[in-house]
Amino acid sequence: MEYSVQIMSPAAHILFWFVMVMTVASAALVVVAKKILHAAFALSICFLGVSGIYVFLHADFLAAVQLIVYVGGIIVLIMFAIMFSSHTQEAGGEGGRHYLALGAGAATALIVFTSVLMMVGKLNQPLAEQNNRAYEAYQHTVGITAADLAAEPQRLGLGHMLMGEYLLPFEVASILVLAALLGAVVIVRKETKG
Amino acid sequence: MNWSQLVELLPVGVVLAAALVVVFLQLVLPAKERYVLPMAAMAGCLLGLGALAQNYLSLNQFLKGGLPWFAALAQPSGHSPAILNGAFVIDGFGISIAAVALIAGALSVLCASHNDDDSALGKGEYYGLVLLAVAGMMLLGFSHDFLTLLISLEIMSVSTYILAGSERENVRSGESAMKYLVLGAFSSAFLMLGMAFVFGATGSLSLSPVFLLPNDPRNYLVMGGFGLILVGMLFKVGAVPFHFWVPDVYQGAPTGVTGLMAVGVKAAGFAMVARILLETFGAPVFRFQWTGLIAAAAVVTMALGNFIALRQSSVKRLLAYSGIAHTGYLLLAFLVQKNANAAMVEESLRAVSFYLVAYGLMTLGAFGVVSLTREDGRTLENLEDYNGLAKEHPALALCMAAFMLSLAGLPPFSGFFAKFMVFRSAIDNGFVLPAVLGILTSVASLYYYLRVVLRMYMPEEGSVAARCQYAWTSNLLIYASGLGSVLLGVAPHLMMGMK
Asked: How many angstroms separate the CA of residue A188 from the nearest CA in chain B?
């Protein structure tokens, strides 16, 4: 996998901007949608867009995982949750405060966006160089050949990371899942007396 | 990776095992025998403390001994080897955080153990979640890279979100859980984004110091990431501008859980603050930039927390605002001057760990008193409930008075010494003005703490003093924390290994 800065073809450029606009617009729609079902649909489009961003970052495997887990799993779960729950209190927001919150959110997003833009503009080149260096060093430590990596770059690298260097955090994450599971039991269980 | 080092994490393993055992027991035991659940949870905490003591001993041996028994607590970070590829570090500071978490867990089990099996608080899942939260806090205390730090933080947070809402028939409890969940997730997002920035700049997840040349363009990324991390951390410890969730969440949650949040979550949050501020961004070039911010946050937090607490009529809410104020005092300890040496950083870490232990004991004791039920079914939540408590329950009132005076920072109690260490650390480092403001707000805080004491000993006319009924477990909790507060006050060298 080449990590040097590549120049995109015009078609790719158009696709890139299409995905970006789609992601941001659908994310905004999630916030402003009046009906929760519409918000859920917009969220699924937003997840699709994020997966597209991963493709543009050469993280194909991550893009596939994003599709399977978020679009295929989480969104379906959300849809089911909406189906099963009651919709009686759905209509109407809180009026004035709604717009205030919207404005504050938009302002924060704008500030974060411009500051990220400024930072990234200052260091585009060094980061790409550094990634290349880190990648070479990593190949060396794990002991897989460049040919292996060329064939299956991400799955191999990720697998080695998760089952090697980051095995412990990976396992500790299962405790987090346990806590969430236990919490789900506490929240949904019927109150029994005696 | 050297897996035999996993032994060092035995205290966490013990607590996790206890959590599983408690949940399993809830499933298999008949309703009549469920009184063993709190006992099992308690045993888990005590065994965890035992395993932790083993960690002290081996650390002491590693440091070539010569330190008094408890003084290993005050050893600065970095003296003991990082384990498991630097994911965790078992040092004195981490051990002291883990000890606070275990004590908070044990006392909050005691606080809930008189609930009968009918209520959600008497069920096995409750104790299981308390133990999981404690395990998360301990892991957070030992974490030494961003990944384990984040996962531990989430283990702790997810468990406490649910614990806060576990009193399901109480609307306030649900509100508290909801607020805590939304704002907690929000602050975690800030933290994660900041970590991503720092990782992008350094290419490393480790908490070891960031070194970049002054003209390196990646400095912008690091500073942006640091700002986001700082926001996330101040959220978690409840410092002003990010304190809005504290009063509502503390008031709505069941009192045992509030105690756990006020002490354990705060200790774990400060472990994160200490590691990130003093180690990751501890280089003089960074320290120069954040000391001003922290000083401002500390002063505003102390002032606002104390002045709003003056007007509270609910003791639980009063303790919440007092918790905000104490966050401010703790932040003072992080004011380390630009060219400070390792010994001065060590001194301020000592102040932090002593403060957390002292604050933990007195706060848990005070919440223990608040959780007691009067004969008319109300808990001792409001100020008027304390009218004439001294007549009916002299020993209890004495303990409560001790907690209040200790929180205010009066001499014979641990609170005095804790504040003294913090102020001295700030003044030694040249931050005289924040320290003086801290002393002034501390004097002002005496007013609202004394109000509680006065109600107990000089009841308002026409008020009825009600008797409380309480289990021996609550007694144990209150007297143990009272004893601890006095002991640490008269003999602080027991823990600090003072010269």
From this structure: 10
Pick from B364, B301, B353, B293: nearest CA to B327:
B301
In this predicted structure, what is the pLDDT of residue A90?
Answer: 54
> Tens digit of pLDDT for each residue in B166-209?
887 788 888 899 999 999 998 999 999 999 989 888 878 888 88
DSSP H stretches of helix in B333-468 = 342-370, 389-392, 394-408, 414-428, 432-457
Counted across chains A and B, CB pairs separated by less than 8 A come out at: 90
Class of domain A9-86: mainly alpha
* Chain segment A119-133, per-residue pLDDT in tens: 777 665 555 555 555
With cut-offs at 50, 70 and 90, classify the pLDDT of residue B75.
very low
**CA–CA gap between residue B114 and residue B400 (Å, rounded):** 20
Within 8 A by CB and 6+ apart from B408, the residues are: B415, B442, B445, B446, B449, B450
The dihedral sign for the CA sequence B248, B252, B255, B259: negative
Contacts of A122 in chain B (CB under 8 A): 217, 220
CB distance from B165 to chain A under 8 Å? yes
Q: How near does any CA of chain A get to the CA of B176, in Å?
A: 14
Can you tell me the distance from the alpha carbon of B7 to that of B12, in angstroms, rounded to the nearest whole number?
10
- Suggest the residue from A114, A170, A176, A177 to mutate for an interface test with chain B (most B CBs closer than 10 A): A176
Q: In angstroms, rounded to a whole number, what is the distance separating the alpha carbons of residues A161 and A176? A: 20
Residue A43: pLDDT band (50, 70, 90) is very high
Query: What is the spatial distance between Cα A12 and Cα A138, in angstroms, rounded to a whole number?
Result: 30
ipTM of this complex prediction, to 2 decimal places: 0.82
Asked whether the predicted pLDDT for residue B415 surpasses 60, the reply is: yes
Instruction: Give me the pLDDT at residue B77, please.
Output: 44
CA distances (Å), B482 to each of A159, B155, B450, in order?
Answer: 52, 30, 17
Integer CA distances (angstroms), B210 to B240, B277, B278, in order: 27, 11, 11
